[in-house]
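Module 6 notes. Inverse folding takes a fixed backbone as the condition and produces residue identities as the prediction. Think of it as a translation problem where the source language is geometry and the target language is the twenty amino acids. Below is one complete input and output pair. Work through it position by position during the lab.
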């Protein structure tokens, strides 16, 4: 028998027999976006994540809004978190991931976009600490050195490599 044992504005905890898992609100149209500026630098954001007690470098991402496609979510999150304005015709869906299939019901779409320096038309919103640029040629050093650990980010980079973009 399934029952909701906890609920807040962002997620619900569902008990299904002896199992518990999270259902995140609007995660079915949530998205992550990997941007490559002028074919030189990947664009990341720096955030403090209380759940792990660390400041991390990760890709822009977020939950979808009602009646918003995951592509629109990716574009909105890129704009809010980095200030880059992206034309919907310029994004490519890389794939879909299940960030933690043991406890999360989420399916998150991952997108890629080429951007130019002049696509940055505003400063990042206050929800991020900073916008971080990492040279394309240095990305695997950041992974190897443990400077990029976020599952969304690592998945996006893997999908980008697999698609040979």
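Target side of the pair, the amino acids:
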């Amino acid at each position: 028998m399934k029952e909701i044992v906890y609920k807040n504005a962002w997620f619900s905890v569902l008990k299904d027999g002896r199992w518990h898992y999270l259902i995140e609100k609007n995660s079915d149209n949530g998205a992550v976006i990997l941007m490559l500026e002028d074919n030189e630098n990947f664009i990341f954001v720096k955030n403090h994540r209380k759940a792990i007690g660390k400041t991390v470098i990760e890709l822009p991402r977020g939950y979808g809004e009602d009646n918003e496609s995951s592509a629109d979510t990716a574009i909105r999150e890129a704009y809010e978190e980095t200030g880059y304005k992206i034309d919907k015709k310029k994004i490519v869906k890389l794939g879909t991931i299940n960030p933690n299939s043991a406890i999360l019901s989420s399916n998150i779409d991952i997108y890629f976009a080429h951007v130019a320096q002049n696509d940055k038309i505003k400063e990042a919103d206050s929800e991020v600490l900073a916008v971080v640029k990492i040279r394309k040629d240095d990305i695997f050093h950041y992974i190897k050195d443990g400077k990029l650990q976020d599952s969304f980010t690592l998945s996006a980079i893997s999908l980008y490599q697999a698609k040979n973009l």
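Reference fact for the lab report: The longest strand covers residues 41-49.
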